[in-house]
Q: What sequence folds into this?
Protein backbone atom coordinates (compact mmCIF):
# COMPACT_ATOMS: atom_id res chain seq x y z
CA UNK A 1 0.00 0.00 0.00
CA UNK A 2 1.40 3.39 -0.96
CA UNK A 3 1.52 5.83 1.98
CA UNK A 4 2.51 9.49 2.20
CA UNK A 5 2.32 12.20 4.85
CA UNK A 6 -1.24 13.23 5.75
CA UNK A 7 -2.53 16.58 4.59
CA UNK A 8 -3.29 19.19 7.31
CA UNK A 9 -6.98 19.01 6.27
CA UNK A 10 -7.49 16.06 8.62
CA UNK A 11 -8.01 17.91 11.87
CA UNK A 12 -10.93 18.31 14.22
CA UNK A 13 -11.56 21.80 12.87
CA UNK A 14 -14.59 22.60 10.72
CA UNK A 15 -14.42 20.53 7.50
CA UNK A 16 -13.85 22.18 4.14
CA UNK A 17 -16.96 20.57 2.62
CA UNK A 18 -19.71 18.14 3.71
CA UNK A 19 -18.80 15.20 1.44
CA UNK A 20 -15.65 13.94 -0.29
CA UNK A 21 -15.45 11.61 -3.27
CA UNK A 22 -13.28 8.51 -3.08
CA UNK A 23 -10.62 10.24 -5.20
CA UNK A 24 -10.64 13.30 -2.90
CA UNK A 25 -10.53 11.06 0.19
CA UNK A 26 -7.54 9.13 -1.13
CA UNK A 27 -5.82 12.43 -1.96
CA UNK A 28 -6.41 13.88 1.53
CA UNK A 29 -5.29 10.62 3.14
CA UNK A 30 -2.18 10.64 0.91
CA UNK A 31 -2.84 7.12 -0.32
CA UNK A 32 -3.80 5.65 -3.67
CA UNK A 33 -7.41 4.93 -4.55
CA UNK A 34 -6.56 1.23 -4.48
CA UNK A 35 -5.15 1.60 -0.95
CA UNK A 36 -8.35 3.37 0.14
CA UNK A 37 -10.40 0.48 -1.26
CA UNK A 38 -8.18 -2.02 0.61
CA UNK A 39 -8.72 -0.14 3.89
CA UNK A 40 -12.48 0.05 3.33
CA UNK A 41 -12.68 -3.64 2.44
CA UNK A 42 -10.61 -4.63 5.48
CA UNK A 43 -12.24 -2.42 8.13
CA UNK A 44 -15.70 -1.37 6.92
CA UNK A 45 -17.21 -3.73 4.37
CA UNK A 46 -17.49 -7.53 4.19
CA UNK A 47 -19.02 -10.23 1.99
CA UNK A 48 -22.50 -9.61 3.42
CA UNK A 49 -22.17 -5.83 2.99
CA UNK A 50 -19.85 -5.23 0.01
CA UNK A 51 -18.34 -1.86 -0.82
CA UNK A 52 -20.63 0.11 -3.18
CA UNK A 53 -19.34 1.08 -6.63
CA UNK A 54 -19.02 4.73 -5.54
CA UNK A 55 -18.88 6.36 -2.11
CA UNK A 56 -19.06 9.83 -0.65
CA UNK A 57 -17.30 10.18 2.69
CA UNK A 58 -17.80 12.70 5.48
CA UNK A 59 -15.04 14.47 7.40
CA UNK A 60 -15.49 12.26 10.51
CA UNK A 61 -15.22 9.18 8.28
CA UNK A 62 -11.98 10.56 6.82
CA UNK A 63 -10.62 11.06 10.33
CA UNK A 64 -11.30 7.41 11.13
CA UNK A 65 -9.85 6.26 7.81
CA UNK A 66 -6.74 8.32 8.54
CA UNK A 67 -6.08 6.14 11.59
CA UNK A 68 -6.25 3.00 9.47
CA UNK A 69 -4.19 4.62 6.69
CA UNK A 70 -1.23 5.04 9.07
CA UNK A 71 -0.77 1.68 10.84
CA UNK A 72 1.73 3.11 13.34
CA UNK A 73 -1.02 5.38 14.70
CA UNK A 74 -3.44 2.45 15.07
CA UNK A 75 -1.23 1.00 17.80
CA UNK A 76 -2.13 3.98 20.00
CA UNK A 77 -5.82 3.03 20.07
CA UNK A 78 -7.62 0.90 22.62
CA UNK A 79 -10.73 -1.12 21.84
CA UNK A 80 -13.71 0.08 23.85
CA UNK A 81 -15.59 -2.60 25.79
CA UNK A 82 -19.10 -3.51 24.68
CA UNK A 83 -21.96 -1.73 26.50
CA UNK A 84 -23.86 -5.00 26.94
A:
Amino acid sequence: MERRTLQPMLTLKKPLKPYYSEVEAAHYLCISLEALHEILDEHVFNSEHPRPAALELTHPELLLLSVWAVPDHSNNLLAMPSRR
In short: The mean pLDDT is 81. Residues 20-72 form one domain. The chain is about 40% helix and 5% strand. The first helix runs from residue 22 to 29.
